[in-house]
Amino acid sequence: MTQERTGVATFKGNPLTLVGPQLQAGDQAPDFTVSKNLLEQATLKDYAGKIKLISVVPSLDTGVCDAQTRRFNEEAGALGDEVIVLTISADLPFAQARWCGAAGVDRVVTLSDHKDMSFGQAYGVLIKEFRLDMRSIFVVDKNDKITYVEYLPEMTEHPNYEKAVAAVKELL
Predict the structure, then answer these.
(1) pLDDT in tens, 31-89
(2) Which residue, 6, 11, 47, 51, is the most exposed by fewest CB within 10 angstroms?
(3) Which of 53, 56, 65, 79 is catalytic?
(4) What's a single GO MF annotation on this record (predicted)?
């Protein structure tokens, strides 16, 4: 039975149901399967040995998600080769590629959770009502241990960019 959490997140004040566990710093990062493109899949193991800043957005085609992804794209350049910034959304892979091209985003890796919602369920961010992933941030160390988590209580709010980047820098 899949765990559901209600009352922990909202969209414009309306309650949402999140599916999956509420992870915290110190937890082992769960594996997931997402799409790199229509034919290739990616899992947590594909980024082994890297510090991972995982930026989760509902859809790149919305204002806050756009700003969040652009911000982490800028930050990625200064974080170095030991760090990979992953942006995960339920957008289709070709929509992600189109958005990245139009936005000039080239330092983050966009991954699509559209097919199985594997990431959303494993990380507790699947929004039952919309079949999207809730805005959140996870920092995962080289040994796949979660060191920082931010679940946004309101879908339309920005994450704490400074704290997320500081959490990554602590691992360098």
Answers:
(1) 999 999 989 999 999 999 999 999 999 999 999 999 999 999 999 999 999 999 999 99
(2) 6
(3) 65
(4) thioredoxin peroxidase activity
* Closest of 120, 146, 158 to residue 16, by C-alpha: 120
- Mean pLDDT, rounded, of the chain: 96
Which residues on neighbouring strands pair with residue 88, listed in sequence order? 56, 111
Tokens of 57: 């957005």
Q: CB-based contacts of 62: which residues, under 8 Å, 6+ apart?
A: none
- pTM given for the model: 0.97
**The two structure tokens encoding residue 55:** 């930026």
Verify whether residue 65 is a known catalytic residue.
yes
Contact partners, residue 48, CB within 8 Å, separation at least 6:
142, 144
Buried residues in 29-38 as b, exposed as e (16+ CB within 10 A): bbebebbbee
Structure tokens at 139: 């920092």
C-alpha to C-alpha distance for 104 and 74, rounded to whole angstroms: 11
